[in-house]
Amino acid sequence: MIIIKNSLFISIMQMAKQPFLEKLRRFFEMESGYGTFATPWGSFMYFIKQGHIMAHFIDRIKFRWFPKFAFISNFPSHLDVETSSACQMKCPMCYTTYMDAEKKGIMDFNLYKKIINEAIKYNVYSIKLSWRGEPMLNKNIVKMISYAKQSGICEVAMLSNAERLTPELAKAITDAGLDWISLSVDGNANTYNIIRAPAIFEETLEKIRVLREYRDKVGKKKPLIRIQSILSAIQNSFDEFISIWDGIADRVNFISDQARDFDVKGMYHDQNYVCPTPWQRMSINHNGVVHQCISDYNGYMIMGDMKKQSLYEIWHGEKFRKLRERFRKHTYLEHCEACLYCTDNVTNEKEEICVNGKKMKVNVYKGITKVKDKIGYLQK
Ligand SMILES: C[S@@+](CC[C@H](N)C(=O)[O-])C[C@H]1O[C@@H](n2cnc3c(N)ncnc32)[C@H](O)[C@@H]1O
Ligand code: SF4
Question: pLDDT tens across 212-233, in order?
Fold first, then answer.
């Protein structure tokens, strides 16, 4: 209680120093780098299809608003669980491509069970089974989905490059109860085949179509299928990209090009940014080590280790306390190296794009080299 009062006091004092409109803007500001091509009605229906409507609604409120009021929940409502930090691809924009070999590994099933057992004890709402690498490289991935679902986690999801998505795996993840899957398809055929080599666009499309067909055939609504592309990879071909996924995906999303722990020259960090993640989630790597957040790809700030502590102890430990305080006091840039490589705290600007004849504003980060430009210089 004292901690909450203290951090609330700091936040009010900090807000008092900022101009009124700036205070308002920051209070209502949400995650900025992600977007969807779905209509508002499509987004509403997607929310409904996710199920657990009341629990999900409450979870969204906690996730969005607890950080704004510096409210530290008993346990985070979301966990990022890195089932694999290894990957078979070498996407030019991705941190994993450049990551040291000793950081690559596969999560052991016993460690995973320990995470899920604690998550259940504290009513975790959602888990994501991917972070830096490719989750389908973990041979226990289906068992992991089943274990989490049978234990009672409401939302079990993952991001994947779909390269290993055989018809058998598509069937198994559907039967295991996966709630949603985000498949990364950066661009249409030509761009995709360069960024995501050795994967081939047409083959990936077919793999995802098979997943959709199986799901429909057995009369299931899940996994919901989301396609996500990096924004610059579909620049100038939005309509074509969206129409390809018609009848296959439930939703088509994009993500603004980020730095991802390298290529940081020229980024404009915002000292007054208050990152919501230390109030929202914990990111556990394949070895059970908890990093500062999902943007701390390199492990600049280690918050704890599951081999020695429980997740509860780590969440309420000194490292998380200090991290939250640094955001409240706007001193994070002096202390948190990972934040210097993160894009979330980078000042962004709006870019206008035209989708199906309608104008839409998207956020792009100042000072970031876009993937589209990167593949240009990588080919030279
Ligand atoms: C790191 S990958 C891990 C999961 C899986 N291997 C995949 O490709 O989806 C997670 C997501 O990060 C995205 N990503 C990687 N590098 C990025 C960058 N520089 N900017 C924005 N998104 C990036 C990928 O496109 C993918 O959608
Ligand atoms: S984006 Fe995904 S598929 Fe590509 S290198 Fe990174 S982890 Fe692998």
Answer: 999 999 999 999 999 999 999 9
- For the CA of 93, the closest atom of ligand 1 is 19
Residue in 91, 184, 258 to alter for ligand 1 test, most ligand atoms within 8 A of Cβ: 184
**258 Cα nearest atom in ligand 1:** 20
Instruction: Report the SS3 class of residue 19.
Output: coil
Q: What is the 3-state secondary structure (H, E, C) of 153-205?
A: CCEEEEEECCCCCCHHHHHHHHHHCCCEEEEECCCCHHHHHHHCCCCCHHHHH
| Share in percent of the chain as helix, strand, coil (round to 5) | 45, 15, 40
Q: Nearest-5° angle of CA 255, CA 207, CA 226?
A: 30
DSSP one-letter code for 256: -
Please state, in angstroms and rounded to a whole number, the distance separating the CA atoms of residues 6 and 307: 31
pLDDT digits (tens, 9 = 90+) for 39-70: 889 989 999 999 999 999 999 889 888 998 89
CA distance 10 to 325: 9
Residue 35 β-bridge partners: 254
Please report which helix (H) or strand (E) contains residue 261, including its range. Answer: none
Q: Report the run of H or E that residue 240 belongs to, with start and end.
A: helix 238-244
DSSP label at 250? S
pTM: 0.90
In whole angstroms, give the CA distance from residue 92 to residue 232.
13
